[in-house]
Design goal:
single chain, about 230 residues, alpha+beta, four-stranded mixed beta sheet, 11 helices, 4 strands, about 60% helix, about 10% strand
Length: about 230
Amino acid sequence: MATPDSFRLYYFSIQGLGQTSRDILEYAGAKWEMVHPDADWGTQKAETPFGCMPVLHVIQGEKTVILSESVAVEQYLAKHFGLMGKNEYEEALIKAFHTSSMAMMGMFGGTVTWNMPEVQDKCLQMFKEVMLPNWVKTHERHLIDNGSNGHYFGDELTVADIKTANLIDHFAMQPAGPELIEIIQKAPVLWKVKETVDNHPKMAEYRNSTAYKELTERTIAFYKNPRASTGTA
């Protein structure tokens, strides 16, 4: 496929698994459209490749290629817009750290957010004592090796940086956000990644936008009672 003319991203009207793709598209100054199929998701779900979102439409002329699964979508966009390092070795490691942060987000969802209410407190404690510190430790070690400069590789922004910043934001928006952020802030080099991403001129402009602020507000509201928000309470 030739260079795309534009992109159309389908995801719910919260940050969640759609935020890294949004960040990449904003960083790149791409021509793109956000579609929130919240009200029609019950009928549209069967029309997606795997029955889930995000879904990315890559548009070039009259041709549209449809991509699904957040890891595939994010890594495609990162590769297309130069956020995958300078060679195959860097790309492989960037994918590893990107996937690690993606897995941590999923682990929190399964362990805490979508777990049975009667065990959530116990599982949250386990997450804080074991899972999150392990993630912090492994990423902290690599970031120190890279010079503690707010990047995973060299001094350039990559999708690994963006994903980690998004993950930290995701934790901050949870009801247990202050407890989770306290753990992360004990590793200043990891917190510096978030600050570096947030302070990038293109990212800072996006984060100051009304669209981003509204997404943040809806995300915080959603996670106060996610089962009620999805009708599964």
